[in-house]
Amino acid sequence: MRCPFCHNADSRVIDSREADEGATTRRRRSCPACGRRFTTVEEAVLAVVKRNGVSEPFNRSKVVAGVRRACQGRPVDEDQLKLLAQQVEDAIRASGAAEVPSNEVGLAILGPLRELDEVAYLRFASVYRSFTSVADFEREIAELKARQSGAPPGETGPPAPRQPVPSGSSAGT
């Protein structure tokens, strides 16, 4: 780390402490050339690579803004949106990658949003997954219903009841 006073290219770490619940590291440093002390704050940068190849820092407020539009008119408050954005950031950081494609951010939003509000989830998914027909909505609604009933995806409900075989018939033999 370069000394901000004499611009010496080397410095010595005297003390390190976590700050902001572990999101940043505060280091107290000493310059061997001029002897002055200074503090640095280090933070791991998470970058999002957009479809056009441009990379920009992850921004929770962009997640909140996108989800807020999907939640318009729904019983979702600002604290819930901020918590969702935190969950999304935590999930992305857990991957360990320094750069993530923007579509992974969208995928990370879908899970927590589905739990928060199903209507907002459908709205967000319809834009994110580029729904083009009513069939796309129907398929997604069927999956939501299957999740609620505990059925595996693709099954929309309990199987149809079997018709009783009349006695004395030769059906099935």
UniProtKB/TrEMBL annotation:
Which cofactors does it use? Zn(2+)
Query: So what does this one do?
Result: Negatively regulates transcription of bacterial ribonucleotide reductase nrd genes and operons by binding to NrdR-boxes.
What segment(s) does the record annotate as region Disordered?
145-173
> Where on the tree of life does the source sit, at the highest rank?
Bacteria
- What InterPro entries does the entry give? ATP-cone_dom, NrdR-like_N, RNR_NrdR-like
HAMAP family documented for this protein: NrdR
Family to which the UniProt record says this protein belongs: Belongs to the NrdR family.
Zinc fingers, unnamed class: 3-34
Q: Transmembrane stretches, by residue range? A: none
ATP-cone domain: which residues?
46-136
PANTHER family (alphabetical): TRANSCRIPTIONAL REPRESSOR NRDR
Q: Locate the compositionally biased regions of type Pro residues.
A: 155-164
What name appears for this protein in its UniProt entry?
A: Transcriptional repressor NrdR
> What Pfam families has UniProt attached to this entry?
ATP-cone, Zn_ribbon_NrdR
Gene name, please?
nrdR
Q: Which UniProt keywords apply?
A: ATP-binding, DNA-binding, Metal-binding, Nucleotide-binding, Repressor, Transcription, Transcription regulation, Zinc, Zinc-finger
Quote the record's cofactor note: Binds 1 zinc ion.
